[in-house]
């Protein structure tokens, strides 16, 4: 049997694909065995080492080795048994190519685009908060979870959408489940987008509150992005690398300039903003960014964030390998058992898993994998690299985040992530509070918090909740040890804040635009004059839909900013539940598709992640709704605050009558949303189960895939083209450009 097969769809054209069935060589087997052994050693050290210092390098080694084995063997197994890509079949990008929404994109460029779209603040913030339970539980879930759940979801949703002309997750749910399941999916997406955008914006607010340096630097990214948009559109069209280099230089200049501005009287006066003011600024930014032309602000910010994300994470990984920092967090902390951690309430199960969220499994990724990416996929064989491989990269970002949170002083970590009501906001009270937690190491002193703030150029870093400032402190510690010394800590801290803000703002503006389209589509179904909303270029419709969207997430954001219990502490578990709800919907959709295609023997592949996700989500929802612990249950908090108001007293950390009123309103909204999420999970799971049972009972094999059309273009399958693929590419390059009509993708 031939090991190399050339796929042809036209006798007058070169092959459109290559199928390589060459067996793995003995040398490669030894290499993969060595990688597996090294990974096993690293995991053993992390799991078994007690009472001694553990180096962060072992986490990096364990993660990278696991990723390599999983991608080479488990992802390939999924490809062989379920997706079975065919490069002789045209993808939606080729069939509907219009240069706008549909366009075959170079697989390497699409990998970067997909990663930039899925990698928001989740893999940065969640692991940092989860570090309160120790480095080991979070690391295990981030790495193992992505292999069997997160990457599987992203890959299978991308595959399913590609086979259905790039349909969205909601459309696929409607096709597979019927009206009830489709409506549940659409409602879930809109509600989840609202919570997601609000929580991400809250992270920015907490990072920039009372920080003139940070506010100036982030504010400057808007004119920089606008300049880049005009530069690409009119001055130097198509020069992406050139304008990206200019943008990076301007970003660094903005960070340096922010340090200078923060030392002037006028700079302090103009750019020291309250958290409420920053929240309103973000709401206004979200609206403007969602209605401006995409080339003017969104596209250039994508360029900036992509380069900044990949470059910073690579530099951070190199810094950890070079400096080899010791993990100061315990493997498993006391809070993993008691569930009384100040960063977020609740025990290890289920709240560790919904807190980490995007780093291991994220429902938001399903929107991208069934949104822009399938419309740009040149070949079906590229889906494994982009879908499964892209999620592995995000997991690595999460690994870097949990390392940075685990190498800083633990008193400092908890002083930064505990609510203001516990730390008191002063170095003296913060030191007293963190010393009461029974943490390992020397007791904290007020100087610890004062010096830490001075080192990074801030007045205070106490109760800077949300994870972003903690990650920035960790990054500044690593970078300063091998790039510039202690004097560069302030620069690297604000560089990290800029880096995180670019992650987050990209999600806020892009997410607001996506939600705007969803609202427009939903309203247009009402018929009559509302049909105009179907046209995304109708300015009135765009403005109205954008106002609805920003009003939704903006109100939740302001609720979090004013929450006396600490906004991020209350909202992040809700965000995690919502995000995992969407993952349950996505995994249910692909599970049903697999069963209906007659591949029920492999239903366990998405089933593993689905069962675990539903168990976690429903347990967390139950506790948030019914728990009698006021630190955990929203309705318990609500009842206590109502009783306190009637008695004219304070409620938990809410001391004034105004704070009690705010707590009553916020806990009611949060408790109600928890119920809505739980109901949506049950609806989706029940409908999906009924569809699967019906398919198994009748034995009917059905599929909603679009009819196949032969491909007329060529593209290599992997990131690096093989020798055979390079030969075929040379044949396509030799064509005069008149055959075929479409341009080959190199």
Word description of this protein:
It is found in: Cell membrane. One of its GO terms (biological process) is cellular response to starvation. It is a multi-pass membrane protein. This protein is mainly α and about 750 residues long. It has helices spanning about 25-50, 55-85, 90-95, 105-120, 120-130, 135-160, 170-175, 180-210, 210-235, 240-260, 265-270, 275-290, 300-325, 335-340, 350-355, 365-370, 385-405, 410-415, 420-425, 425-435, 445-455, 470-480, 490-525, 540-560, 565-595, 605-625, 635-645, 655-700, 725-735; strands spanning about 5, 15-20. The chain contains 29 helices and 2 strands. A two-stranded antiparallel ribbon has the order 1-2. Mean pLDDT is about 85; it is low at about 740-745.
Descriptive keywords:
single chain, 746 residues, mainly alpha, two-stranded antiparallel ribbon, 29 helices, 2 strands, disordered C terminus, transmembrane helix, cell membrane, transport, Carbon starvation protein A
């Amino acid at each position: 049997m031939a090991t190399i097969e050339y796929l042809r769809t036209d006798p007058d054209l070169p092959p459109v694909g290559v199928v390589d069935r060459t067996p793995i060589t003995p040398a490669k087997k030894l290499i993969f065995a060595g990688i597996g052994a090294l990974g096993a050693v690293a995991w053993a050290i992390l799991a078994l080492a007690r009472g001694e210092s553990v180096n962060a390098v072992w986490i990096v080694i364990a993660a990278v080795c696991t990723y390599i084995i999983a991608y080479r063997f488990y992802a390939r197994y999924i490809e062989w048994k379920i997706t079975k890509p065919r490069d002789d079949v045209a993808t939606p990008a080729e069939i509907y190519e219009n240069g706008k929404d549909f366009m075959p994109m170079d697989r390497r460029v699409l990998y970067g685009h997909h990663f930039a779209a899925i990698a928001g603040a989740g893999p940065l913030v969640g692991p940092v908060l989860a570090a309160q339970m120790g480095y080991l539980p979070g690391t295990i879930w981030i790495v193992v979870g992505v292999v069997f759940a997160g990457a599987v979801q992203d890959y299978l949703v991308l595959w399913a959408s590609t086979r259905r002309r790039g349909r969205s997750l909601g459309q696929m749910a409607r096709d597979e489940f019927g009206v009830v399941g489709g409506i549940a999916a659409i409602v879930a997406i809109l509600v989840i987008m609202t919570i997601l955008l609000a929580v991400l914006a809250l992270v920015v607010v907490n990072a920039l509150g009372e920080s003139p340096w940070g506010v100036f630097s982030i504010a400057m990214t808007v004119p920089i992005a606008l300049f880049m948009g005009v530069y690409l559109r009119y001055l130097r069209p198509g020069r992406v690398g050139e304008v990206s280099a200019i943008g990076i230089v301007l970003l660094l200049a903005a960070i340096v300039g922010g340090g200078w501005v923060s030392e002037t009287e006028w700079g302090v006066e103009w750019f020291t903003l309250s958290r409420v003011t920053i929240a309103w600024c973000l709401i206004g930014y979200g609206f403007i960014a969602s209605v401006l032309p995409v080339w003017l602000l969104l596209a250039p910010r994508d360029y900036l964030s992509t380069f900044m994300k990949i470059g910073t994470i690579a530099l951070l990984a190199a810094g950890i390998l070079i400096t080899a920092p010791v993990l100061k967090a315990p493997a498993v902390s006391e809070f993993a058992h008691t569930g009384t951690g100040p960063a977020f309430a609740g025990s290890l199960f289920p709240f560790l898993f919904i807190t980490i969220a995007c780093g291991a499994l994220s429902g938001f990724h399903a929107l991208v994998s069934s949104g822009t990416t399938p419309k740009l996929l040149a070949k079906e064989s590229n889906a494994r690299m982009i879908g499964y491989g892209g999620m592995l990269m995000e997991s690595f970002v999460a690994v870097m985040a949990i390392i940075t949170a685990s190498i800083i002083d633990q008193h400092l970590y908890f002083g930064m992530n505990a609510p203001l009501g516990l730390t008191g906001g002063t170095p003296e009270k913060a030191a007293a509070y963190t010393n009461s937690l029974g943490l390992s190491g020397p007791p904290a002193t007020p100087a610890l918090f004062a010096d830490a703030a001075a080192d990074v150029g801030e007045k205070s870093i106490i109760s800077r909740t949300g994870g972003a400032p903690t990650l920035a402190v960790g990054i500044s510690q690593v970078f300063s040890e091998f790039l510039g010394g202690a004097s560069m800590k302030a620069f690297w801290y604000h560089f990290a804040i800029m880096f995180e803000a670019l992650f987050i703002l990209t999600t806020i503006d892009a997410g607001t635009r996506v939600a705007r389209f969803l609202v427009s589509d939903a309203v247009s179904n009402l018929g009559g004059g509302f049909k105009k909303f179907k046209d995304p270029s109708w300015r009135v419709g765009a403005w109205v839909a954008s106002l609805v969207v920003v009003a939704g997430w903006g109100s939740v954001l302001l609720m979090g900013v004013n929450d006396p219990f600490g906004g991020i502490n209350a909202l992040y578990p809700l965000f995690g539940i919502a995000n995992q709800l969407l993952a349950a919907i996505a995994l249910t959709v692909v599970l049903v598709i697999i069963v209906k295609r007659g591949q029920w023997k492999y239903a366990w592949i998405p089933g593993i992640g689905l069962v675990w996700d539903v168990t976690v989500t429903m347990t967390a929802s139950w506790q948030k709704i019914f728990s009698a612990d006021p630190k955990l249950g929203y309705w318990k908090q609500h009842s206590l605050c109502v009783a306190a108001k009637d008695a004219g007293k304070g409620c938990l950390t809410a001391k004034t009558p105004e704070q009690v009123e705010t707590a009553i309103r916020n806990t009611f909204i949060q408790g109600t949303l928890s119920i809505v999420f739980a109901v949506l999970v049950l609806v989706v799971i029940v409908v999906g189960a009924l569809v699967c049972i019906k398919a198994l009972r009748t034995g009917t094999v059905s599929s909603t895939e679009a009819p196949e059309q032969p491909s007329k273009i060529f593209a290599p399958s992997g990131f690096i083209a093989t020798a055979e693929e390079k030969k075929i590419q040379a044949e396509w390059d030799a064509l005069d450009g008149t055959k075929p009509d479409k341009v080959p993708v190199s």
